[in-house]
Amino acid sequence: MILKETPFHCLLVLLFLKALLVVGIIFYAQIPLGPEEAQYWCWSQDLSWGYYSKPPGIAWEIWTGCQLFGNTEFGVRFGAIVLAFLSAIFVYCTAKACRLQPWTAFFAGAIMALSPLGMLGSFLAVTDGGLVLFWTLASYLMAKALTESRSPNFLLIGVVIFFGALFKWPIFVFWLFVLGFFPYYPRASKTKLLIGIAISMLGLLPSFIWNYEHDWVTFRHVQSTMLGQQVGIKASKGNFGDFLAMQAGILSPLLFLTLIIGFLFLIFQGRKIQRSLVFCGSVTLSLVVLYSYFSLSQKIQGNWCVFAYPTGIVFLAWFACEKLPLGKLMLVCGIVFALFQNTLMFGIPYVQANSLINIPYRYNFFRHHMGWQELEKHIAALPQEQFLFSDKYQMSSILSFYSPDQKRAYFLNLLQNRLNQFSFWPSMAEEQVGSTGYFIISENQPYLKQWNQSFIDSYQEQLAPYFDQIEIIGIKPIFTSFDRVEKSALFLKCTG
């Protein structure tokens, strides 16, 4: 049994130590919430069946953490620590379901935990955490069935996909892989398969209810995104090279290279590999190839296919440990380099914030997270009865979390960007007529160089139709390193 295996005990110790490390990073590394995390926190303060761009799972996750630990950065990120812990456990279980050796399974769990993918998954409160966990659990059920040459439990897989759909809808793609291996299921029941799919589709019900009340805006948003026709956003060129580089960075370059070699082995020797491992390898290969193809013609974010890697890590551990002569050494070197990546990723913000080593700001992976504690100090100096707003929902979210009373800020769509969740909450026009508010935006270097007088004047002109008077409060530095201002915030007082 897995619970009695020494490698599993070692993995548990590793995961507990990692969880403690992440807690320490949250409290001491001086990395505030990112704009997306702050946005999801805003959602958690207004629990609903759904939200404009995502299902409700991430809001429920953050709400739970904040109920336990308050509306703090740790409260927001607590759920991510738990989900990433469980994801590594189920990667180990999937490896064991493929009948890999116990220490091979340990390597799989360790890679899932210690790669940049695993570390960021433990740290950031984003929708990927829930998707990855439930995708991994569904993969475990499939791998176990294929190894035992029996039909999968379609009903249980449907339940798992149901929960995953509460975080991110791409989990429905899992059914395509289930169907792709259908010829290998002895005496498979098509009726149970259809019932399982129906159960999983219930995961759309919360968003369906919300959209029914809001003119189906989410589904129209997803459709336009897939077609690359968002309002106000021009079709972008592809980013194939950058996308592949990001995939190598997510897993760690040496581990990613070994996985690519493993894919070649899968392509040419697939008939000699047991079906559960073929499943694990083909799932990851298919998804990475698919997203790479899309990246030839449009910009694909690096995190969009992170759910592909749990099965790929199982395949990687098998290929390296049980097929390559020096494979275990390669994995150890890959993990060591991943730890080096993690050290730089989480260490550079602290080093820059405390001016310990003169490192260029562009190397700060979390530069879009920085400076909010200092911004909070500037906001605290403002009259607390007056409201805050910005022209981007990301900044409105930051203003909401990092204001002293954590009252939701407003979004004013000066640039006529696409809708966001703030578009469905009460606006300034509904709640603040005749009041005074503060318009706040922020920017990082090198774009701060564009903040000249004409830039400020343009904002005054854009805000003038909405207020009686616009007064420049000033540009406040909110993140400096070695006396260089790397991030600033512009404050405008808007009266009447």
Q: Could you please describe the fold and organization of this structure?
A:
Helix 1 packs antiparallel against helix 4 (73-97), helix 4 packs across helix 16 (309-322) and helix 14 packs antiparallel against helix 17. Helix content is 57%, strand content 8%. A hairpin with a 2-residue loop joins strand 4 (469-481) and strand 5 (484-495). It has helices spanning 6-28, 35-44, 57-69, 73-97, 102-114, 116-123, 128-147, 154-165, 174-180, 190-201, 205-212, 217-227, 240-251, 253-269, 275-294, 309-322, 327-353, 372-380, 393-401, 428-431, 453-463; strands at 387-390, 410-411, 437-444, 469-481, 484-495. The protein is an alpha/beta fold.
Estimated radius of gyration: 24 Å
Could you give the distance between the termini?
70 Å
Find the structural class using helix and strand composition: alpha/beta
Order of helices and strands: HHHHHHHHHHHHHHHHHHEHEHEHEE
